[in-house]
Amino acid sequence: MARKKKVCYSGIGGQAVLEGVMMKNKELYAVAVRKPDGEIEIDTEEYHGILHGSRITRIPFIRGVFNFIDSLILGMRTLDYSASFYEDGEASDTAADKVLGDRSKKTFSVLTILVSFALAIGIFMVLPYYLSTLLERYVRNASLLAILEGLIRLLIFLIYIVAITAMKDIKRLYQYHGAEHKCINCIERGHNLNVHNVLRSSRYHRRCGTSFLLFVMIVSIILFMFITVDNPILKVLIRILLIPVIAGISYELIRLAGKSDNAFTRIISAPGLLLQRLTTKEPDEEMVAVAIKSVEAVFDWRAFLKENFGYEDDEL
């Protein structure tokens, strides 16, 4: 049966973890991990978000802030789970571990997120501003100085991406990242979800977190051009306070890019897709098999193909 070539939004998303892939569909998520013995372990749970059921999470430009926070929390949780299969040794639990249990792990995860967030602010917000102030004697125009600050921020980001790509474990993580994208592209373009079709699919996707971060960089350049205060401390403070605004705008842009296909969305998506050449790598068949298991644990792709592409039972 001939079918019109099209792309249908599936609503599923995910991320790469250590030797595996996490896939999320609405409130259900699954983590599939290739264990050291070669077997695939799948853990399926629900994550309702920090403000589950609140109307505020459905308000445009505000929902992106909470979505970003939820992504950080779920990302840390799933990375911890995948890493548990590759921990060195079988150290016995201490008395404190037995008493605190999951509470100590949650506290550690929260602290890790907070420290990571503080480092990110320092490296990608404060440092570029400080470096741009060194150019003040040569550049008198405030708007141009804000653009230069943004370019410095973008350069630091690219250097960071390139630097970690050289690490062996990160390269494998990027391969699983590619497997995640390939699975979603395979489904959204109307193909049966199997290893052959997934390997033939693109490893680039518009709704990627890499593209989101690039949107953050670009949106920050535009917003910071309108900061006219002279006090350096106040300038830094305003930049930090604008982070939720930047995240909210960036979320709406990447959401639009993922659900629409027109000249505008293709233009704004192009830089992020180009950057994904660094943050995704071609996976092998075993990696794809893990990603497929993760998808199938949370998403009925057969029903999706029937509904959106007109497949019959004997074609699946």
Task: Write the element-wise H/E pattern from the N-terminal end onward.
Answer: EEEEHHHHHHHHHHHH
Number of strands: 4
Proportion of β residues? Answer: 5-15%
Radius of gyration (CA) equals 21 Å
The coarse silhouette is globular
Instruction: Report the structural category.
Output: alpha+beta
Overall average residue pLDDT: 89
Q: Give the neighbour order of strands across the main sheet.
A: 1-2-3-4
Quickly count the helices: 12
What distance lies between the first and last C-alpha atoms, to the nearest angstrom? 13 Å
Spans of at least 5 consecutive residues with low confidence:
89-100
Report the biggest beta sheet as strand number plus sense, adding barrel if it closes.
Answer: 4 strands, antiparallel
Helicity, as a percent range: 55-70%
